Amino acid sequence: MSEKSDRVEGEHADYPEVHASRRPRPDGERTQTLVFLHNGMTGNWSWHRQVEAFGDYRVLTPHLPGYGTRRDEDWNGFDSAADDVAAFIADRVEAGRVHLVGLGLGGLVGLHVLSRHPELIDSAFLSGMPTVAPAAPARTGAAARLRIWGGEWFAKMQAGAFGVLEAAENDDVATATARAVAQDLATVALPDGLDEFEGPVLLAAGAKEPPHIRKGLDSLDGRFEHAQVRIAPGMHHAWNLEEPLLFNAAVRRWAERHEAHPRLDDPA
């Protein structure tokens, strides 16, 4: 069903990074590419339901630095991660731009990709970006999560909770990476030049996400030439797993028609 990534080695390889298209597009046009950037508390396996749904696309699910089979690598900040993602895309996409999808940490990395490598991206669908510092209770909760990150059982617990246990393999993130990411999130700053990206951008959040995530959408207001803001009603942070049918339909509608899905609420 999918190609093995050249970064995945050994018989205990993690979830693949490259997934070949499995059927032609209904409109007969050339196959396009979707790139999914995972959240900071999971790994690329968390896009399992999206890989299943987008069989008419070539799908890339890269491991961010310090995650998955790259968990022994250092996390060196958002600019470095964005350059890493851009190199990954450029090495695997010979013609045309890609549709970029990011969640949480992946959404923040996606913002930096748009700023630093806009020539690679056709459209972007970014959800749940923590672009402003959380309140004290949220920071306390994050610190507690750091103490349990890094264990194999934690990744399997998350995967099992969403019914995708078969997609997760071993632990996703080293504790050192989690701490480095948490430090960057505590002082997160939006990249410059976002208004120079000319493609369509959908900025989303789950209605049940923490307040600082919703507030982060306000910080992005006016940063793009062509952007829409939407709220996923009743959804928490990982709504790609919580409600994959809605998430997949929203991504497809945005990538193919540049329209927000009608079930997503306009906060205005």
TrEMBL record:
Transmembrane regions listed in the UniProt entry: none
Gene Ontology CC: membrane
Domain AB hydrolase-1: 34-249
GO MF term list: catalytic activity
Location of region: Disordered: 1-30
One family name in Pfam for this protein: Abhydrolase_6
Top-level taxon of the source organism: Bacteria
The name this protein goes by in its record: Pimeloyl-ACP methyl ester carboxylesterase
Organism encoding this protein: Zhihengliuella halotolerans
